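Lab manual, section 2.4: Encoding a predicted structure.

Procedure: take the sequence of the chain (128 residues), apply the prediction step described in section 2.3, and record the output as structure tokens. A sample record is shown.
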Amino acid sequence: MATEDPRRRIGAAGERLAARHLEARGFRLLERNFRTRHGELDLVAADDRYLVFCEVKARIAAGGPRMAEPLASVDRRKRLRLRRMARTWLAARADARPYPAEIRFDAIGVTFDRAGALLALEHVENAF
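Recorded output:
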């Protein structure tokens, strides 16, 4: 019996929490884990004003006073890839119903303790 990669499990848990967080703030989820040749868009959501492409990073805290910094990995290269993936998503949805005109790129960092309990959820709107 194959065991699941713990990084995938933590990532999936972080994405579920991020999706609930966005929904609680009035966003409707349009897409999860949209695959492109450049990578995967974690979440695409919309409200009346914004179409949001959201990158989710989940980490386990290292312990002690220093917390994990999940959003530190959203560097320049990752931001460029996310923009390419967003263009691919928009092109694939060209015939779909209209979406809000304003596009925003958000980042959500989720930190768990070693037992899997949520320690922090940081949502940076318009992160890049």
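Check your result against the sample. The longest helix spans residues 6-24.
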